[in-house]
Write a structure and sequence with these properties.
- By secondary structure, the protein is α/β, with parallel strands linked by helices.
- The protein is built from 14 helices and ten strands.
- It has an eight-stranded mixed beta sheet with strand order 1-10-6-9-5-2-3-4, sandwiched between helices. It has a two-stranded antiparallel ribbon with strand order 7-8.
- A hairpin with a 2-residue loop joins strand 7 and strand 8.
- Helix 5 (124-138) packs across helix 14 (390-404) and helix 9 (246-257) packs parallel to helix 10.
- The termini are far apart.
Amino acid sequence: MSDFHQNGNIATLHNLRTRSLQELTYELETFAQTRKMTLILPCLYSELETDAMPNILAELSKVSYLHRIIIGLDRADEAQFRQAKKFFEGLNQNHIVIWNDSPRMLELGARLDALGLAPSEPGKGKNVWTALGYLMSCQDSSVMALHDCDIVTYTNELLARLIYPVANPHFPYQVAKGFYARVGNNSMNGRVTRLLVSPLLIALKKVVGDRDYIDYLRSFRYPLSGEFAMRTGILPDLRIPSDWGLEIGVLSEAWRNLAPHSVCQVEICDNYDHKHQDLSAEDASAGLSRMSTDICKAIFRKLAADGTVFSNNIFRTLKATYYRTALDLLEAYHTDAVMNGLQLDRHKEEQAIELFAENIMRAGSHFLENLSETPFIPAWNRVHSADPGFLADLHAAAAADEAEFS
């Protein structure tokens, strides 16, 4: 996006196409001499069988400034774990594959469960949380980055641009969030961001009034991107959701723990495409239907924690306001797509809006009916307080799995 607009809430770092990847890489190599950097890759075993992962692996093998890569592997049996270890042998960096379903890791999970500190459900949030715990147990990295494993347009410039703002010791940023355009197969993508989050935040501002948190979220060009980088000093106090609200949850934690000038968003690529989820209109527990509900709950929880009072009447008003706002934005998306020669099926877009409107009510009802729910995974500081040896045992379990199944 070749502009230099600043929204006034958080810094926006653009790609003005005036600097080469080679220059960025040289600087990152310099920073890495005193500030070790780790990349976390949360993945499902099934993602190793896609076209995206071999390309991601090839691109990462060109990266010289990373100290370590931590791969969190979900939904894998023993044979698949062995195969995953072989798959990642092509990486040039020090790396480890954490088998989240191994007997040792399940035993550690039971230990947390006995303390009432276990993540409430499996998923990306739990995967990332475990990898963060392993990273903290290593006690040797100043900077971490995380990105998804289904990016079909991946190049290592994405990583360089993502990690640079927090790796540069002269910058004030503790958290960097990636943004980009979502275009693929001649279509405008990013339905949940375009058709749910953007109009929902506008509607919330109309219904519940001005809130700094709403303005903060609206400042992000792509709040649902799975790419972010952080300085590791903030990790022990990070509380993240275990569901699809992970990305909103991380931004909310940055809002809670940091000053606005410590957070930035950075343009990491010209175009980004990855695996597309089904709308799943018939199954509220899957696909974009589940995702949209979890995202709404994450936003409602944060607003409530900041003092916003919700009721059934407010959620009914919010649904109506959202629906009208989303249809207005759809007109803008349609004209934008036409001008750029892209396809946009207005019928399917309106179907998605109708589903998201219903899921705002579903999320609201869940929020009101489960007031005692603890939706966040405990911060690692709390786990350490309850079980001071847990992080060391997590590190040892991952190392033992690595050795036994090599």
